[in-house]
Amino acid sequence: MVEFITKVNGVVNNFVWGVPMLVLLVGTGILMTLLTKFFQLSHIGHWMKNTIGGIFKDKSVTKHTEKHDHQISQFQSLCTALAATIGTGNIVGVASALVSGGPGAIFWMWIVAFFGMMTNYSENVLGIFYRRKNANGEWSGGPMYYLKDGLGSKKGCKAIGAILAVLFAVFCLLASFGIGNMSQINSIAENMNAAFSIPKLITGIALMVIAALVVVGGIKRIASVAEKLVPFMAIVYVLGAIVVFVVNIDQAGAVFGAIMKGAFGLRAVGGGIVGAGVKQALTWGMKRGVFSNEAGLGSSVMVHSNSNVKEPVRQGMWGIFEVFADTIVVCTLTGFAVLSSGLIDLNTGAVLSTQSGSALVGEAFSTVFGGIGQSFIAVAILLFAFTTCLGWSHYGTKAFEYLFGTKSTIVYRVIFVVFILCGATMKLDLAWDLSDTFNGLMAIPNLIGVICLSPLVYRITKNYVERVIKGKDVKPMLSVFPDIQAEQEARD
């Protein structure tokens, strides 16, 4: 049965992650970058000031909502989104990209991230603009809603909008068990077993119990945990990676040179085909880049839509920062740590270690920190992967809610928790392959929606720039629904 699933998944994976998909992913980011006049660069000071800067200067960014209020703060929405994105992709994914695609894969991760910033921005803008409140008074937003109410409102597109919305919800539901559950938990179990000789079954049971206490509590409890764990784990890991790189600072030039040469096939590839090397670097860099920051999947918008923010563009800017932090900062530092440690030949891209995945990153850290390096990475994987699991439980919940109604979500949460035990004991390669497939399937309907609604994103962005940045007296564009628009306008 496992062999059959592997073969079928392989066929689907090759189709989903072919050249057309990569063109669609990057092309959407390029389109949104051009339409918004390179917002991620032209207004970098503004979005930095209103995201990471706002955490320290604007109390509304971090202010918690009341217990009876099902909204969460902007900072909590970011932490929950980062909890889902900063995961095994930042460690295992980067290592896999380096092993399979060579140093050049890092460059293509950067490209995916640069344009992905505006894809994620656009998803969040649409998510806030089309969100509505469910039966429990909680915000519900995401590709399902802007596909149905946005794309579906265009002439002759009502049926296709509704169909794509359902397809996205189904793919998201399946992905939540792959990228958001089994692959993450499997990585934890593997690392706990390798570093501390803890049986995988014991790890699975422990994580299942802890997850149940958090997941069943819904978005407020998930956000509360993410708000505490994510900043801590990210800062500690980043500092560790920086130390490894600084110790090997004499390799900085060679590392950067290897990345650029590998990206464009300017180095020898197995003594032969340059074109194949470029393709490998590009494919693995893009696949693992998307796996890491999830720009284009339409996943993180489902938690960003729970924010108490009223401006679609304001939440869109958090999407830019999310991709920046995940890929430009964390993934880059992981890549530089491995490449500067001497475990990969910078001239040929050949791996000089017998290790792979997180073990390769652990070995890189061990060159500086000694025996504690492997344990450090094992604990990092534990925190990164587990918080990813928590974040994705919310995405799956929202997809399940869209398909079966608000009251049924408890059923999904119970099933999700049970699958944690399955993830701890299953085959790692299959878990990763399934994750790649579901990622790609999610992206297709979402990117169709973003492209079709790109003129609306342009108008909302222009409206914000004129009002907030240029100070013009223009009526705000806050929601497609008149009652929500009026409610948000009435807020201070």
Q: What this model shows, in words?
A:
With 492 residues, the chain is mainly α. It has 23 helices and two strands. The protein has helices at residues 2-16, 19-35, 39-42, 44-49, 52-57, 59-62, 74-85, 92-101, 104-130, 143-150, 158-196, 200-215, 218-247, 252-263, 274-293, 301-304, 312-340, 357-369, 372-404, 409-425, 428-452, 454-469, 482-489; strands at 132-133, 139-140. It has a two-stranded antiparallel sheet with strand order 1-2. A hairpin with a 5-residue loop joins β1 (132-133) and β2 (139-140). The longest helix is centred in the middle third of the chain and has 39 residues, at 158-196.
List unreliable stretches of 5+ residues: 267-277
Largest sheet: 2 strands, antiparallel
Helix content: over 70%
Q: What is the gyration radius calculated from CA atoms?
A: 22 Å
- Helix count, DSSP H or I runs of 4 or more residues: 23
Q: What is the general shape? A: globular
Strand elements, count: 2
Overall mean confidence score, pLDDT:
80
Distance between the first and last residues' Cα: 58 Å
What is the beta-strand fraction? under 5%
Report strand order across the widest sheet: 1-2
Element-level helix/strand string? HHHHHHHHHEEHHHHHHHHHHHHHH
Structural class comes to mainly alpha
What would you call the quaternary organization?
A: single chain
